[in-house]
UniProtKB/TrEMBL annotation:
<dbReference type="GO" id="GO:0044877">
    <property type="term" value="F:protein-containing complex binding"/>
</dbReference>
<keyword id="KW-0812">Transmembrane</keyword>
<keyword id="KW-1133">Transmembrane helix</keyword>
<feature type="repeat" description="Solcar">
    <location>
        <begin position="53"/>
        <end position="137"/>
    </location>
</feature>
<dbReference type="GO" id="GO:0005315">
    <property type="term" value="F:phosphate transmembrane transporter activity"/>
</dbReference>
<keyword id="KW-0813">Transport</keyword>
<dbReference type="GO" id="GO:1990547">
    <property type="term" value="P:mitochondrial phosphate ion transmembrane transport"/>
</dbReference>
<keyword id="KW-0472">Membrane</keyword>
<feature type="transmembrane region" description="Helical">
    <location>
        <begin position="305"/>
        <end position="323"/>
    </location>
</feature>
<keyword id="KW-0809">Transit peptide</keyword>
<keyword id="KW-0677">Repeat</keyword>
<dbReference type="InterPro" id="IPR023395">
    <property type="entry name" value="MCP_dom_sf"/>
</dbReference>
<feature type="repeat" description="Solcar">
    <location>
        <begin position="150"/>
        <end position="234"/>
    </location>
</feature>
<feature type="repeat" description="Solcar">
    <location>
        <begin position="251"/>
        <end position="329"/>
    </location>
</feature>
<keyword id="KW-0999">Mitochondrion inner membrane</keyword>
<dbReference type="InterPro" id="IPR018108">
    <property type="entry name" value="MCP_transmembrane"/>
</dbReference>
<comment type="similarity">
    <text>Belongs to the mitochondrial carrier (TC 2.A.29) family.</text>
</comment>
Length: 352
C-alpha cells in the first residue's frame, strides 16, 4: 500500500516544487550538503514525502501528540463529563472541581487516565497517519489544478476519512473512560471497568457509542484539519512578515501553535452537542443517542461548553505543536503552504 501511495506522492500537488524543496531543505534523504563555497547548506531529510517511513512516523507523531495531551487534560475532561451528565450537582467548571476534590480528593481528578491514554493514542495514530495518506490519494484523484482550487474540500474529505477509522479504534476506551469518570463506585481502573462492562453487555458496551463518536469527532476533525491548514496559509500570507522558507523552525512552530488554537476553538463549538450525547450515553444502560438528545434538549447539549473550549483550544494547539515538532525531530519533509500551479496561473492570465 505504502509503495503505491509513495508513487502518487511524487506527483502530489501538495508536495512543494523541486526548487522550493531544495530551498527549504526538503529534497529528500539523498540531498547533498555540498555546494559552492558560501552557498546555503542543504538540510538532509530522513525520508521522501509520501514514503512508507513518512506515513509511519506521522502516525507516531499522532500517537505522541494525542495520547500525551488528552491524558494531561484528564482532570478538566472529568469535570466536563460530570457537568454534562449531572448538571444539578456540578453547576460550573469551578464548582465541578470543588465538588470533585471534596468527594474524591486530588487523586480522583486522575480517574480514567489509562483508557484516555490508550484510546487517544490509537486515535492519534489513525487520525494523523491516515490523514496524510488520504490527502495524497485524494489530491492525486483531483489533479494538480483542482487539488489547489478545492483544497479546503480536500482537507475536509481526507480528515473525515481518517477520523472514521480513528473512532473505531477509540470507542472501546472512550466507553470505559466515561464509566469510570461518571459512575461513582462502578470502577476505579481500566482493569476493573473492562471485564465488568463485557460481563454486563458484551462487546456492545464498548461500541454502542461509536455512532455518536462519529457525530462528535468527524465534524471536530474536519474543522481541526481544514481550519488549521487554511489558518496557517493565512498567517503566512497576511500576518508573518516574511516567507515561511525564511522563518526559523521555532518561528514556524509558533505559527503552528497559534493556528492550532484558533482551529481548536471552532472544533469545540462544532463538536460539543455530540460530545454531551456521548457522555450521557456511555453512562446510561439501554438508552439510544436519539433518546438522550431528546431528553437533554437544546440547552442541555451546550452544558460545559466553556470548559470544553478551554480544553479543546489548548489541546488542539498542543497537538499540532507536538505533531510538527515530531516532524522536525525526525527530519520529515514539511512542505510549505500550497501555491497556485503555474498551469493555472497561465489559464487565469496571471503570468505572461
Amino acid at each position: 500500500m505504502f509503495s503505491s501511495v509513495a508513487h502518487l506522492a511524487r506527483a502530489n500537488p501538495f508536495n512543494a516544487p523541486h526548487l522550493q524543496l531544495v530551498h527549504d531543505g526538503l529534497a529528500g534523504p539523498r540531498s547533498s550538503p555540498a555546494g559552492p563555497p558560501g552557498a546555503p547548506r542543504r538540510q538532509q531529510y530522513s525520508c521522501d514525502y509520501g514514503s512508507g517511513r513518512f506515513f509511519i512516523l506521522c502516525g507516531l507523531g499522532g500517537i505522541i501528540s494525542c495520547g500525551t495531551t488528552h491524558t494531561a487534560l484528564v482532570p478538566l475532561d472529568l469535570v466536563k463529563c460530570r457537568m454534562q451528565v449531572d448538571p444539578q450537582k456540578y453547576k460550573g467548571i469551578f464548582n465541578g472541581f470543588s465538588v470533585t476534590l471534596k468527594e474524591d480528593g486530588v487523586r480522583g481528578l486522575a480517574k480514567g487516565w489509562a483508557p484516555t491514554f490508550i484510546g487517544y493514542s490509537m486515535q492519534g495514530l489513525c487520525k494523523f497517519g491516515f490523514y496524510e495518506v488520504f490527502k495524497v490519494l485524494y489530491s492525486n484523484m483531483l489533479g494538480e489544478e483542482n487539488a489547489y482550487l478545492w483544497r479546503t474540500s480536500l482537507y475536509l474529505a481526507a480528515s473525515a476519512s481518517a477520523e472514521f477509522f480513528a473512532d473505531i479504534a477509540l470507542a472501546p476506551m472512550e466507553a470505559a473512560k466515561v464509566r469510570i469518570q461518571t459512575q461513582p463506585g462502578y470502577a476505579n481502573t481500566l482493569r476493573d471497568a473492562a471485564p465488568k462492562m463485557y460481563k454486563e453487555e458484551g462487546l456492545k458496551a464498548f461500541y454502542k457509542g461509536v455512532a455518536p463518536l462519529w457525530m462528535r469527532q468527524i465534524p471536530y476533525t474536519m474543522m481541526k484539519f481544514a481550519c488549521f491548514e487554511r489558518t496557517v496559509e493565512a498567517l503566512y500570507k497576511f500576518v508573518v512578515p516574511k516567507p515561511r522558507s525564511e522563518c526559523s523552525k521555532p518561528e514556524q512552530l509558533v505559527v503552528t501553535f497559534v493556528a492550532g488554537y484558533i482551529a481548536g476553538v471552532f472544533c469545540a463549538i462544532v463538536s460539543h452537542p455530540a460530545d454531551s450525547v456521548v457522555s450521557v450515553l456511555n453512562k446510561e444502560k439501554g438508552s439510544s443517542a436519539s433518546q438522550v438528545l431528546q431528553r437533554l434538549g437544546f440547552k442541555g447539549v451546550w452544558k460545559g461548553l466553556f470548559a470544553r473550549i478551554i480544553m479543546i483550544g489548548t489541546l488542539t494547539a498542543l497537538q499540532w505543536f507536538i505533531y510538527d515538532s515530531v516532524k522536525v525531530y525526525f527530519r520529515l519533509p514539511r512542505p510549505p503552504p500550497p501555491e497556485m500551479p503555474e498551469s493555472l496561473k497561465k489559464k487565469l492570465g496571471l503570468t505572461q
